[in-house]
Give the backbone structure.
Amino acid sequence: MNFVIVKYNAGNIQSVLYALERIGVAATVTDDHEAIKAADKVIFPGVGEASTAMRYLRERKLDLLIRDLRQPVLGICLGMQLMCAYSEENDTTCLGIFNTRVKRFSGALKVPQIGWNNISGLKGALFSGVIENSYVYFVHGYYADLSDHTIATADYTKPYSAGLQRDNFYGVQFHPEKSSFTGEQILKNFLVN
Amino acid sequence: MLTKRIIPCLDIKDGRTVKGVNFENIRDAGDPVELGGLYAAAGADELVFLDITATVEKRKTLSDLVKRISHKINIPFTVGGGISSVEDVHVLLENGADKISVNTSAYKNRGLITQLAKEFGSQCVVLAIDTKMEEDGNWYVYLNGGRVKTTTLCKDWARQGVEMGAGEILLTSMNNDGTKKGFAIDITRQLAIALPVPVIASGGGGSMDHFAQVFSEGKADAALAASIFHFKEIGIPELKQYLFTKDIPIRL
């Protein structure tokens, strides 16, 4: 199997690469179109700001490339948010893979949400072997609304999408690469199973 | 529900874990990577590695260590100690650190936090503050590992730090650190209530009940301790089980 991590101007790419190494999976970090298209599975990571990331992707035509991929694709954190239709973060039009909007947390709680929160309503093979209300690690100030693509739900001020899926596209708001054994199970489910 | 975090802190010198009592009298407590892995497996929610190496080779030693840690550890970790530039941070994040903490350098260079937040995002910028309550009843900021007093109030500096882009505050009470008599509840509570970002309480945790207090009364988002974990005075699984029975939201 040939695994590719999409290289772009976002943080946590190394962390994802190291997490894959810990579960015995080698991956290539690249922004080369042909290499991404040829991969068996693609991870689209990301920690950063939406409009800057989208601009970078558009300049390199990675936006169109990602949208047209047919193999399994997993967006992580900002990667997942960029796969949604729109983000309130600097009024950014995103890739439009998931039919939901990304909004800023409002209300009395601290923003960003930093720490371990539980996920429920788990659907599909990505969460195979993961028990309801398992804890995973989140760091984010914006969230994706619930939609018919939601495959996992978390609650911070309100319920929101912790996981999304449409066809071959998967997204998780939390960081599986930092979510201990639960996160490793989810990565294995995506990559190996 | 978002849970309260338990964070073991590993002080690092020349690649080894050490812990001072009141910032002095350092003892050796093992290999940081091995110890960090043990804590992660035991249920620690996050780790902090604080490098106190003062040699010129520091930068290389630390980036090598961070790389080893990130290959081994499956939970988030913060690296601090002598970080003073965008380039320092870039190297650490590149090697797999999730967050970095700044202390004296951020106080002396008021542009640093803003620069770091802009370049890497607030989520990875932790402002560490060493504070001490003086006889006038006020909490003041101390620099250089607690050796240099300032006239700045802790609550003012914390507020400024957050406005400049710090995403978390790591608050160490020098009055409490090393005493095992409990965390500084009042200043922790002041900051935790006033600030829109998480506050990590540090210094003084000696019993499981101290942790319960700093979460329930101090309103801390996370609690950090070192020697009580290193010397197995409190086990992380037992601590988390205890907090759970006290109705504190915790990840078991």
